[in-house]
Amino acid sequence: MPENTAISNKIKELRARSNLTQEELAQKVGVTRQTIISIEKNEYVPSLLLGMKIARMFNLPVEEVFHI
After folding, report:
1. How would you classify the pairing of strands 8-9 and 66-67?
2. 51-65 residue pLDDT tens
3. Helix and strand tally (H, E) in the chain?
4. Fewer beta carbons under 10 A from the terminal one: N or C of the chain?
């Protein structure tokens, strides 16, 4: 994948639908609230494992949460 390929996500939207705060999601997937903030802002691309944990929280495949 080229260096300039962006990965976006729908975490903020999914959190809102699920009535989850950033802190609650962070606790459920084992990271800090700051990590969730950075992922939502597309400033940080999570590891595959973390991406899968987040997708599972919303009962969705990873491809429906994260987009290239």
Report:
1. antiparallel
2. 999 999 999 999 999
3. 5, 2
4. N
Alpha-carbon distance values, 18 to 22, 41, 58 (Å): 11, 19, 8
pTM of this prediction? 0.89
Question: Contact, 40 vs 9, CB < 8 A?
Answer: yes
Query: In whole angstroms, what is the distance from residue 62 CA to residue 10 CA?
Result: 11
**Helix, strand or coil, per DSSP, at residue 31:** coil
Helix (H) or strand (E) run with residue 67 in it: strand 66-67
Q: Quick one: DSSP state of residue 43?
A: S
Rounded to the nearest angstrom, the gap between the alpha carbon of residue 21 and the centroid of all alpha carbons in its chain is 13
Render pLDDT for 15-45 as a digit per residue (tens, 0 to 9).
Answer: 999 999 999 999 999 999 999 999 999 999 9
- Run of H or E residues at 33: helix 33-40
